Amino acid sequence: MDTARAAVLVRSRTEREAGPTMTEPIHRWGSLTSTERDAAYDNLGAVPEAPQLNAARVEAAAAFRAAHAGHLDLAYGPGLREAWDLFPGADPAAPCLAFIHGGYWQRNRREDFAVMAEGALAMGWSAALMGYTLCPEATMTQLAWQVHAALDWLSDNAAAHGIGGPVVLAGHSAGGHLAALGAEHPAVTAAMPIAGIFELGPIRDTNLNTALRLTDEEVVSLSPIRRPVVMKPMAVVYGAAELPELCRQSRDFHAVRAAAQAPGPLWPVPGADHFRVIEALREPGGALLRLAADLLR
Question: β-strands 83-87, 188-194: how paired?
Fold first, then answer.
């Protein structure tokens, strides 16, 4: 086992309670006030125009979804949100970009991100958007199970909807965390977590945990940085203008992967904040789509 990963896994319970201690600025985490800890992960507060950006995306997603209504609301589980929206391309053998939305595991809907399929379809791929139950209705453990149940369903049923190529699993923010967990599934060929959360310890020390109710066991077992390294191609993407904590999460996760010689780049998107970082996933020929294609080569 590499030294960097061993350092994560053997951390004492006391250190886990205080959060990780890997790089700046988290080395000061234990001395921060609760207000400072909340601010370290407050993406909405860091981007004042976020409500307008989100509203524009929701409006565009509604129009896109209405124009591609053939394979929507396909249930993979019993919950209302446990469903896929599929957007098959012209070639059933083309790759599929599967996307998991963010919202700190407690906000948003897959329907409101449908436009993220636009770029994939334009370059001849298929796309799939996964929904999941939000916290506090579900626990983090249940969300992890839902991701794998969704990928089981996709593996068994996507071909019937015209999707049969390799799957690149992408996710944004909390969806990046879930995509990193989902990368372990055999249906996934490559993964691209975007502005993800890979160490849950600090999250438990913020106001986000009111809904998440993370346990000690979940922090250890569901933090991708603490799990066995997935040796599939994975691009770890973040916005260069994100909050320092979001940048650190991606850098630390990629460092652990690199130490294990796992394939895939660390990819900071120049000038992008937390909400603009996924715009290149929507754009035909955008940088993130080209990066996704590179993972399959």
Answer: unpaired
Q: Is the peptide bond before 136 cis (omega within 30 degrees of 0)?
A: yes
What letter does residue 134 receive in the DSSP assignment?
Answer: P
Two structure tokens written together for 125:
């791929």
Number of domains making up the chain: 1
- pLDDT of residue 11 exceeding 90: no
CA distance 151 to 138: 18
pTM for the full model?
0.90
Task: Return the pLDDT at 238.
Answer: 98
Residue 5 pLDDT: 31
Q: Residue 87: pLDDT band by 50, 70, 90 thresholds?
A: very high
For residue 199, give its domain range. Answer: 3-295
**Type of residue numbered 186:** P
In whole angstroms, give the CA distance from residue 233 to residue 256: 14
Neighbours of 278 (CB within 10 A): 28
Sign of CA dihedral 8, 10, 13, 15: negative
Paired with 238 in beta bridges are 268
Q: What is the DSSP string of 143-208?
A: HHHHHHHHHHHHHHHGGGGT--S-EEEEEETHHHHHHHHHTTSTTEEEEEEES-----HHHHTSTT
Rounded mean pLDDT of the chain? Answer: 91
Per-residue pLDDT tens over the stretch 144-170:
999 999 999 999 999 999 999 999 999
Query: Are the C-beta atoms of 20 and 201 separated by less than 8 Å?
Result: yes
DSSP state of 285: T
Tokens of 200: 């849950």
Tell me the two tokens of residue 151: 């990928």
**Which tops the pLDDT comparison, 28 or 203?**
203
Instruction: Give the amino acid at 30.
Output: G
Exposure of 178 in the CB half-sphere (CA atoms within 13 A): 34
| 131 pLDDT above the threshold of 80 | yes
* CATH number of residue 117's parent domain: 3.40.50.1820
